[in-house]
Amino acid sequence: MEFQHISILLSECLDSLNIRPDGIYVDATLGGAGHSLHIAQRLTAGGRLIALDRDDMALENAKDRLADVMDRVTLVKSDFRNLDTALASCGVDQVDGVLFDLGVSSPQLDIAERGFSYMQDARLDMRMDQQQQLSAYEVVNQWDRAELRRILQEYGEERYAPQIAAAIDRARQQQPIETTVQLADIIRSAMPPAARREKQHPAKRSFQAIRIAVNDELMAVQEAMDRAIDALAPGGRLAVITFHSLEDRIVKTAFRKAAQGCTCPKDFPVCVCGKTAKVKLVARKPMLPSMQEIAQNPRARSAKLRVCEKLSDH
User: Fold this and answer.
1) What is the span of the domain harbouring residue 149?
2) What is the annotated signal peptide range for this record (predicted)?
3) Claim to verify: residue 278 and residue 296 sit in the same structural domain
4) Do 247 and 293 belong to one domain?
5) Cα 40 from Cα 73, distance rounded (Å)
6) Whole-structure pTM value
C-alpha cells in the first residue's frame, strides 16, 4: 500500500538545515519520504542523503517516491538510535545536517492492519519494525498490572492510569484482548463519564503510551540525540520535530546540555572542568506550525521544531 503523507514544518526544516548542494545529510526518520524528497532535490550529484527507517514498508515506498533522486540517496534499515553504526556502514563519519521527525508516521496510523489506531479495528500490533518480537498484543496481555499502570502514567500522562490498568487486567483474565477496538472500548469503560465526553478520544493517551513502550521510543530519542550531535561536522545543523511533551523534554534537555560550556563556579579564576559547548541553539524557543498549516493538516497541531548548530572543534 502506498504511503500517503504530508510533511510537517517542511519549509522550516529545509531552511533550518542550511542545505549545501554538495553536503551530506541524514533523514533519520524516513517515514513517507516527504522531507527526504525535498532535501534530495536541493542536492547536486556531489551531495548525499542517507535516509533511515526501521519500517520495511517505508523503505519500499521510498524507492518509488525518491526514484528521480536515488542517485543522491542511500536507504538504510536502521533504528535511529543506531545512527553512528548506520553512518559507519555508509562509510561516513561526519554529516552536514540531521533531521528527525519523531513519533508515529501518518501512514502507520492510516493503514489499519498496522494496529496503531484506536479509530480502526485491527489486531493489536504497533510495531514500527515488524520484524521485532514485542508487539502491543504482548504488552496488553502479558505485562503485569503495575507495569501497565506505570507506562500509562509515564508515557501517556494518563490521569486514569490505575483504573485503566485494572480494567485491562480484568478483561484479559476472561479472554485475550486481540484488537484495537476491543482495547479502546475497555479503556473507555474504565473512565468516568465526564472524561469520555472530552474532545480528545478517551483512548488516545493510552494508545500513545503502549506504542511508546512497544517501540522503546523515548530511550531511542535520548540515545539518538547524543549520536546525532557527535556526527555533525562543524557548522552542521540538527533539526528535530517532536509531537508531545515527553519527546520535547528529552530533545530540549539534550540540546541545552550540549550547548553548556564551563560548569565551574563563577568565582573560580580559571576553568578546571575543561567542558566546552558542542553546539549553539539556533533559537531558544521551538518553531511552531502556522495556523494555515494546522488548518490544512490537523496532525501538525502539536508539532515543535528545535534546531542546534555544531560548533567548531577545539
Assistant:
1) 131-215
2) none
3) yes
4) yes
5) 7
6) 0.91
Segments in the chain below pLDDT 50 = 1, 314
How many structural domains compose the chain? 2
Sheet containing strand 279-281, strands side by side: 73-77, 48-53, 24-27, 95-101, 232-242, 304-310, 279-281
Instruction: Give the Å distances, CA to CA, from 77 to 52, 104, 119, 230, 273.
Output: 6, 16, 29, 21, 39
Give which of 132, 140, 139, 135 is closest to 55, Cα–Cα. 132
Query: Is residue 108 one of the residues assigned to a domain?
Result: no
Residue that is last in its domain, among 215, 238, 273 = 215
- Dump pLDDT digits (tens) for 9-55: 999 999 999 999 999 999 999 999 999 999 999 999 899 999 999 99
Domain edge (last residue) among 170, 192, 215? 215
* pLDDT tens sequence across 147-181: 999 999 999 999 999 999 999 999 999 999 999 99
Which residues, other chains included, contact 290 with Cβ-Cβ below 8 Å and sequence gap of 6+?
none
Nearest by Cα to 206 from 276, 262, 156, 264: 156
Q: Which one-letter DSSP state was computed for residue 267?
A: T
Give domain status of residue 107, yes or no. Answer: no
Which residues are paired to 75 by β-bridges?
Answer: 51
Q: CB atoms < 10 A from the CB of 200, how many?
A: 8
59, 30 Cβ separation under 8 angstroms: yes
Place of cell 524507492: 63
Mark the binding-site residues for S-adenosyl-L-methionine, compressed into ranges: 33-35, 53, 80, 101, 108
User: Which residues are registered as beta bridge partners of 77?
Assistant: 53
Binding residues: 33-35, 53, 80, 101, 108
- Specify whether the backbone of 126 is left (phi greater than 0), alpha (psi in -120 to 50) or beta: left
